[in-house]
Amino acid sequence: MGRQPCCEKVGLKRGPWTAEEDQKLVGFLLTHGHCCWRLVPKLAGLLRCGKSCRLRWTNYLRPDLKRGLLSDEEEQVVIDMHAQLGNRWSKIAARLPGRTDNEIKNHWNTHIKKKLRRMGIDPATHRPVSSDQTQAPPPVPPRDQEPRDGAEQPRQEEEEDVKAIVPMIQPHTAAGNDSSVFSPASAISPSCSSSSPSASASGLDVAEWPEPTYLFGMDTIMDVGSVWDAGFLSGGVDTFDHYYPGAGFDQEDWL
DNA sequence: AACATACGCAACCGCTGTCAA
DNA sequence: CTTGACAGCGGTTGCGTATGT
To answer: Which nucleotides of chain B does any protein CB come within 7 A of?
Structure first.
């Protein structure tokens, strides 16, 4: 009623964000915050819809984001929370400061699900997979209905594909075009992650925000990468052995 | 070296709940 | 009370990179 439509998609840019666009968005939000996402792209001089700006900010540019692989502890929280909540990624993310729902969702779909299946555990039910399908119904989700899903069904028979269960050791360079070689928020110290990931960015004190992240040098980014390598390859406590003791998971299968 | 395939992640799509006009 | 914009969420997809042949 009288309100303008959210975004008229004509003439709006889509697809991967460039460094210049990121710079504009971060610069604007750091300076002004956001009162209304619809206005952000216009005021920031971006040919994007507000939704796209919000997504880019919350999933990638927010200064309090952690980057890199989830730690063992974080994975354990994800698994534990998923067993309780199902695919409520935003709720799970709320328990992991500095992590986004999108990141957790991706990590679940690409790593944890495969890992669980490899262990003979159904990632949807968190119960051992039985060839006997008369097994008791799943204990989760605790909601009225399974989240409009279907996506829980594997796209292919992953169990049969041994290669599929071997993760690629790939520090955050995958998105790899020039504009995303920098990993903006990866340069932020984990100590910046005190606020809830679901907290409104506008609630943060601008003075506390770090510089737009791509303004950090590559040295910092590479340092983060080395931390990933060290953490991932160090062979420390395995989340899955901890969470599913006796499940017979062999970490060497992964490395 | 060139090509094919698999993988992972960023971004988009579409839906829902909330709230303002 | 109704309508519609907005914000947020979860599922899906497209593309770039890594790996295999």
So the answer is: 6-15, 20-21
